[in-house]
Structure formats: structure tokens, C-alpha cells
Specification:
Blueprint (H helix, E strand, L loop, with lengths): L5 H13 L10 H16 L4 H22 L13 H13 L5 H21 L4 H8 L16 H8 L7 H16 L3 H5 L6 E2 L5 E5 L5 E5 L2 H14 L18 H15 L13 H14 L4 H8 L8 H6 L1 H10 L15 H8 L1
Antiparallel strand pairs: 1-2, 2-3
């Protein structure tokens, strides 16, 4: 099947839209919106298909909301119909009616702001309306401590797949690679057979956010498992490394389901997994925490994970309790004996636990 780029797909959609009866009656918003996708995103920014799809969904939701609010057709809406009160009401609607989290709300606002920044260059006569929309601030939200797997939990999860089945051997290799290399789920599903380099200096090549390519080294145990899987897979260089039974590329939802299934199996041997809501990104968190607890500096961790900003690595520092314990140990008076308090008697231990 021939792959279609984001630019070709967007141009095709515009050509089909121009054949619609209402094209001639469109307002100034419509051509700007279409140029935003065909010129700004596809040509100038060369945005990824995922970014184009995310912006498309956001702006479609906004137009449908404005259409229901104003009673005008989406193609007849003008910039005055998409002013700050309407956009603010749209953001409130996302949280109240669609039950979006503040993070999702802020992500939708990013797409809206990107369109309005582009519109400011093409419609200076609407500068006041556009500026008021651009002034809408992102919403602050509670930042939870990242969830990650301990060494014992990671081993239980990797050992959960049934190795007597083809899918089990595939899932075991995929879980081990996700935990040891810290790949995003999109990076895992996007791997081809040629991206796995085995032998001396074994590593995996992947393309992350912003089309940034990086090479992540593999441990001996990981290289051994992936060598066996690669030999069994026996795919062509451009074939997916972790395919379905029919040879297609695994979807994000499929990976999430496989992680949930194996987490339930692993929880029978490692009960602490029952209290954790496992999803594919927890594998990435676990890799980062293992590096951090081994004493690797945050700059190297950011390089291994493909973070463009060191601030993206900060949550792992906050989640590591051992760093705080070491800091407190430096302030302990010399007269205090090292170690934690342990009750000298089982009965006292029972009372302490109450």
C-alpha cells in the first residue's frame, strides 16, 4: 500500500472541499484555516501526521461548538464569531461536557493559539480579536508524581508473557525493549527490523518527537532476547519489528492492551503491581528511574530519553525518594547512629504499626 504524506493528504482534503456546494460562500476564516494546514503545517513546519491530526480534531471541535453557539454554518463563521468569549466557553465545554483533563484542555488551546498566530499575519484588521484569544492563559493543574516499576516489578512484567506462543515471545521482547531503552509507545510501534543493530555495540535506532533520531544502547540481556526475536521474526528491513499475526504494525491501543494483560498476569506473582495503573508510558518512566537510581546524571538521562528540554526530566528527580534520603543523611548530626529505627521486639513492632 502506498504511503501518503501529511502534505499530500491535506491537499487532497482541500481539493475535495472545493468541490462542495458551499465553497463560494465561505468567509475569511475558511481559506485561512485551509492555508494553515496546507502551507503552515505541511510545507513550512513539516509537522508530523500526528500533529496534523491533533490540530485537525481540535479545530473541528471548535468550529462545531461555534456553529452550535452562534447558529451559523461552520463555513460562514468570521473571526468576530470566534472571539475570546467563544474560545473560553469552548475550553470550559471541553472540561465540563467532554470531561477533558486540564492537560488535554491546554493541548487544545495550543492548537487554537497556533492557528490564531498564523491568522494574525493574514488578518491585521482583526488584530484586537486575535490578540484577546492569544492572551487566554493555559490552566494550571496538579502535577502528580510519576509512576514507575521497581526492579522486581519490571522482572515480573517481562516474565509474564507466555513464551510458548509467538505473541508471548514478541511481547516479551517488546516489554524488555520498552523498559531498558525507555522508548515511547509511538517509537516502539514505529520500529522496523533494520532499526535493530545487534552484535558488538548492540543498539536500537528510533525517531522521537520533532523527528529527532537517536541511538539507544542495549544491555546484554536485552540484546540476547532481541537477537532471538529478530531471528524468529525474519522480516525484511522495512518490515515492522513487532507486527501483528497478519504482519501489520501494532497500534497504540494494541500495545496498551498487551501491557494491561501482562500486568494482570504479573500481579499474581508480584502483588505490588495490583496497586499500579500500568500503561505503556510507565515502561519509559521505569527506564528513567533505573538510570537515576544508578547515579546517572539528568543530562545523560535526557539524552537517552530524547528530551529536548532538561525540564522534561525533572519529574523523575522529584519521584526518587533515595535522592532526598541521601540529602537528609548529609545533615544528620555526627552523634546519631546511622540507619532507620527498628523496634527491638515483635510486640513493639505491632504497636508501632498501628
Amino acid at each position: 500500500m502506498r504511503r501518503v504524506s501529511a502534505a499530500q493528504s491535506t491537499h487532497g482534503n482541500v481539493r475535495r472541499a472545493r468541490n462542495c456546494p458551499g465553497w463560494a460562500a465561505m468567509s475569511a476564516v475558511a481559506p485561512t484555516l485551509q492555508a494553515f494546514f496546507t502551507q503552515r503545517l505541511a510545507r513550512q513546519l513539516q509537522a508530523s501526521p500526528c500533529t496534523v491530526a491533533s490540530y485537525r480534531d481540535t479545530l473541528r471541535l471548535l468550529l462545531c461548538f461555534a456553529q452550535a453557539t452562534t447558529g451559523k454554518a461552520a463555513s460562514a463563521l468570521d473571526w468576530d464569531d470566534l472571539d475570546e468569549p467563544v474560545v473560553s466557553s469552548f475550553l470550559d465545554y471541553l472540561e465540563a461536557d467532554r470531561h477533558n483533563s486540564p492537560r488535554t484542555r491546554n493541548l487544545r488551546l495550543t492548537a487554537v493559539r497556533s492557528l490564531y498566530k498564523y491568522a494574525a499575519l493574514r488578518h491585521p484588521e482583526h488584530a484586537a480579536v486575535i490578540q484577546r484569544v492569544l492572551a487566554i492563559p493555559p490552566k494550571r493543574f496538579e502535577k502528580r508524581v510519576v509512576s514507575y516499576l521497581t526492579v522486581k516489578e519490571a522482572e515480573a512484567l517481562i516474565g509474564a508473557p507466555d513464551r510458548t506462543r509467538w505473541e508471548g515471545r514478541r511481547d516479551r521482547a517488546m516489554l524488555m525493549l520498552g523498559i531498558q531503552a525507555g522508548l515511547r509507545v509511538s517509537e516502539l510501534t514505529g520500529l522496523n527490523c533494520c532499526d535493530l543493530v545487534l552484535g558488538t555495540g548492540a543498539h536500537v535506532l528510533c525517531e522521537g518527537k520533532g523527528r529527532k533520531q537517536r541511538a539507544v544502547p542495549l544491555t546484554r540481556a536485552g540484546a540476547k532476547v532481541l537477537t532471538a526475536w529478530s531471528a524468529e521474526r525474519a522480516g525484511q528491513p522495512q518490515d515492522p519489528l513487532f507486527p501483528t499475526r497478519t504482519g501489520r504494525r501494532l497500534s497504540r491501543d494494541a500495545v496498551e492492551r498487551r501491557v494491561a494483560v501482562h500486568a494482570a498476569t504479573a500481579a499474581t506473582r508480584c502483588p505490588s503491581l495490583k496497586a499500579k495503573n500500568l500503561h505503556p508510558h510507565v515502561l519509559r518512566h521505569s527506564c528513567a528511574m533505573s538510570f537515576l537510581q544508578a547515579g546517572v546524571d539528568v543530562w545523560t538521562i535526557a539524552l537517552l530519553l530524547g528530551h529536548s528540554d532538561i525540564r522534561s526530566t525533572d519529574p523523575y528527580v522529584h519521584a526518587d525518594m533515595t535522592i532526598r534520603e541521601r540529602a537528609l543523611a548529609l545533615t544528620t548530626p555526627p552523634s546519631v547512629r546511622p540507619g532507620r529505627y527498628r523496634p527491638p521486639d515483635s510486640l513493639l513492632a505491632f504497636l508501632e504499626a498501628l
